[in-house]
Amino acid sequence: MKYRTLGHGLEVSAIGIGCMPMIKGGNILYGEAADMDEATRTIHRAIDLGVTFFDTAQIYGPFSNEELLGQAIKGRREGLVIATKFGFRFEGKTITGVDGSPENARRACEGSLQRLGIDTIDLFYQHRVDPNVPIEDTVGGMMELVKEGKVRHIALSEAGPDTLRRAAKAAPITALQSEYSVWEREVEAEILPVCREHGIGFVPYSPLGRGFLTGTMRSRDELPEHDWRRNDPRWSDENFAANLRIVDAIADVAAKHRVSNAQVALAWLLAQGDDIVPIPGTKRRATMEDSVAAADLKLDADDLVAIAAAAPVGATSGPRYGEQGMRMVRL
């Protein structure tokens, strides 16, 4: 495994693991429900392969994903970078809104530490920016947790450039997590440059377009009935066929190198800068092993040009979220 450094000296494996798909039911289901034993074996195998970076969140399940990861890393915690996120208000297991207050950061941190079974969260994100709480107050509250030893590094998710600048002036921000992939490149215009200006590492989530870029599905009808992606505009009947052109361009490069589409899509991201660490979501050893192998794939200049030409910024058909989801990103 190769390793990279995010902001403020936080070293992680070049490919991390997005644990979100490792749920049996709950609020965000991709494909069929995960087999919990296989999910645990996937985490263990990833560690054996040198993966150190594991990403979860309070909202996944909610709560159950943190518990799964916590159980899986028992006895294997040393050397791992465990990332989780806060930023929502709950009534029981129902999300009732965003909450970026310092009080909620503390409350969520305590809960996450308990569910993960660890003493310190290595990377603690605000999951979504709360427009009603100044970002200076949010990161200030998060830094109190750093001072107390409950958190090592703080980070933001889906913050816009102005919010990033303000946050970086108020506190050391180690990473920004936002959607970034071959078919979602808007961060390149303003957000990536601001990250680099302030030494903030970049962690792309959904680096495989929620599975679309892998080319394993050629029709929306292949999605299970309760699959979350049935609500994704890019997977809609009107957009699906148009977006297959991006998949086909990736497939051409994959055939040249005799690798999977997933490896090409991840290698393309890795080629965008040494400060970029994608976290493909997985729940099975086979897909995890395939994704992790992307760390050893080097695309040539012709490959990068061909992919960029097939998927220029803004050319993907459909927004990446529905109306409500789009109101919560890049604030």
Could you explain how this protein is built, in words?
The chain has 331 residues and is an alpha/beta fold. The protein has a single domain, classed as TIM Barrel. It is built from 11 helices and 11 strands. The mean pLDDT is 96.
Q: What's the N-to-C terminus distance? A: 34 Å
Low-confidence stretches: none
- Secondary structural class: alpha/beta
Percent in strands: 15-25%
Keywords: Oxidoreductase
Pfam families: Aldo_ket_red (PF00248)
Domain NADP-dependent oxidoreductase: 22-309
GO molecular function: oxidoreductase activity
Q: What are its keywords?
A:
331 residues; alpha/beta; TIM Barrel; 36% helix; globular
Entry summary:
This protein is an alpha/beta fold.
Please give the structural blueprint:
Blueprint: E1 3-5, E2 11-13, E3 17-18, H1 36-48, E4 53-55, H2 64-72, E5 81-86, E6 88-91, E7 94-98, H3 102-116, E8 121-126, H4 135-147, E9 151-157, H5 161-170, E10 173-179, H6 191-197, E11 201-205, H7 237-257, H8 261-270, H9 285-292, H10 301-310, H11 323-326
Parallel strand pairs: 3-4, 4-5, 5-8, 8-9, 9-10, 10-11
Antiparallel strand pairs: 1-2, 6-7
Helix pairs in contact: 1-2, 1-9, 3-4, 4-5, 7-8, 7-10
GO cellular component, one term: cytoplasm
Keywords: Oxidoreductase
Domain NADP-dependent oxidoreductase: 22-309
